Amino acid sequence: MSNHSIIQETYDRGQGILRLKPVFVPRRFAQAGRRLRLHPDDYYALGTERGSIKERWFSSVIPAMNGPLAPSDEGMSYVAADEDGSVVFLFKDAVEQLGSRLIGETLYERYGTWPMYAKFFDYETPLFHHLHLDDAAASLVGRIGKPEAYYFPPQLNNHLGVFPVTYFGYDPDTTLDEVRERLLKYEEADNRITELSRAYRIQLGTGWYTPPGVVHAPGSVLTYEPQWNSDVNSVHENIVSGETYPYEFLTENCPEDRKRDIEYILSLMDWEKNTDPHYKRHYYRPPLLCGHSDERHAEKWVTYGNPYIGAKELTVNPGQSVIVRDSAAYGTVLVQGHGRFGPHQAEAANMLRFGQMSGDEFFVSETAAREGVRIVNDSKWEPMVFLKHFGPNHPEMP
Prior knowledge:
Layout: H1 3-13, E1 17-21, E2 23-26, E3 53-58, E4 78-80, E5 88-90, H2 91-98, H3 100-103, H4 105-111, E6 116-121, E7 130-132, H5 135-139, E8 148-151, E9 165-168, H6 176-183, E10 199-201, E11 207-210, E12 216-217, E13 223-228, E14 233-235, E15 239-240, E16 243-244, H7 248-251, H8 262-267, H9 271-274, H10 279-283, E17 284-285, E18 288-289, E19 297-303, E20 310-316, E21 321-324, E22 330-336, E23 338-341, E24 344-347, E25 361-364, H11 366-371, E26 373-377, E27 384-390
Antiparallel strand pairs: 1-4, 1-25, 2-3, 3-6, 4-5, 6-13, 7-14, 8-11, 8-13, 9-10, 9-12, 11-17, 15-16, 18-19, 19-20, 20-27, 21-26, 22-25, 22-27, 23-24, 23-26
């Protein structure tokens, strides 16, 4: 059977809902938080040279920017065409073949592809203070800008790591000259640049939106991150938890003739947003309960208030059956419970081996989302809890 036929047959059999295979991504830096529900023996499944596995990606049509040792499809999602995931095809190929039937006319006409992905970000230690480029700066190196959002799911945070605090931007009293001085010390000594920032203690069950150009140092909590289809950074902090980062981390997404241009590097920041005296008021995202919630289920917006990405947390109570409708396509991961999701069996992962199929990740076409997905919670005791990530076209996103 041709790949074209397999994609169509899988889409039809799933009634417009695709079941995705888990995608785990290693990183060379920092320490793994070990909350990805991956078998303890598999955190170095790709070898010590690649680093430990610290992320799981969802509904991704792009590869991770992960150095010369990474395969070309690392980070890209695959759809399972059979029960055990022995026959798969790229989610990207499904988007290209099915087009608007899968992601809807609005997204297909505007972007020509599924424009976002989500990940579980799982670090035991805090990450470096860094920013993501905006579209104008990213275009100079052939990429696009990267807004992203955070939500801290209680189900995946049995421990909070060593530093459950996130830095955002710079203190409003900080001057650009002070930041320039710290960045010029990047290759000399610890630049201690978070001394110029401000930190917020992480509160489970809440989140933040981070625009491009805002410097941030995520804390050591497993984070659900809906984000734009990009992976472009500039790292301002050179030593974190005793680990040293080379100058290339600061300039890897700068044009070759700008890598020693400190004024250009500083220009990657949105200085007004970085020093916003009301940063929390503008970018903190407490959950917002949806009006259709009832005694059988509850749905909350957890990512909202931006022109790129949205996300919900859906809870179906024990023993309940509900039909949940959305006006846009979405990817989803089940983080607690078991039952049915449309025509598929669904169960939250407990402990996966690397490469193993699971029953916790799906992509719902716009047609299926509009018609409604029947979700049946087969447990008498535990709720089913889904995280759902959307592009920018959900008309009900606050």
